[in-house]
Amino acid sequence: QVQLVESGGGKVQAEGSLRLSCTASGQTFSSLVVTWFRQTPGNEREFVATISGRGGLTYYADSVKGRFTISRDNAQNTASLQMNRVKPDDTAVYFCAARGSYNTRAPAAAYDYWGQGTQVTVSS
Known about the structure:
With 124 residues, the protein is an all-beta fold. The protein has no helices and 11 strands. Strands 2, 4, 5, 6, 9, 10 and 11 form a 7-stranded mixed beta sheet that branches.
């Protein structure tokens, strides 16, 4: 069993920056692909970014490419999402999720483990 805990959410002004963290426990972290999703009320969870177990592969949604950076520190069992030049449209609850294999097309339902989510609010 894997437990994921997100932190770092909050309120930020447009064009500002925020860094989210996802800390894992319960399984060898480097064996897990970590992905960030986000969700707004009434909508499905939306893919944001994913990173392979050893960090060599990353993939981003077009909406965040060039602004967000996903990274991980396997020694600390932590994955991060650095959010720069944020926009009001980035406002959402952000979730980290994990699964055993890397697939940029994997939907939210394909993920085995989820954190509780952290709210990010961007004001204009």
